[in-house]
Design brief:
Blueprint lengths: L1 H18 L3 H9 L2 H10 L3 H31 L1
Length: about 80
């Protein structure tokens, strides 16, 4: 599953960067690494929905990692 995810998004970003004159690299130089994913999502159909889903996935991942770390630290303190 991870291989499929990386293949699709890395292939898409390379395709759009090459075919549209380096828009990914320009976004990276201008605004940093975090802006590249939003430039990629803007190139895909349904970009608004994809951006919302991406932010939601980041939020859920942050909560899961925070919960796991809190449990681990709590276990060390006993």
């Amino acid at each position: 599953m991870v291989f499929l995810w990386f293949s699709i998004f890395s292939g898409s970003s390379l395709f759009y960067d090459i075919s549209q004159g380096g828009i990914m690299f320009e976004a990276y130089k201008a605004e940093g690494f975090a802006s590249v994913i939003y430039v990629l999502l803007n190139q895909l159909p349904g970009s608004t929905l994809l951006s919302v889903l991406f932010i939601f996935a980041c939020f859920i991942t942050f909560i899961i990692v925070t919960d796991s770390n809190t449990d681990a630290i709590g276990g060390l303190c006993i």
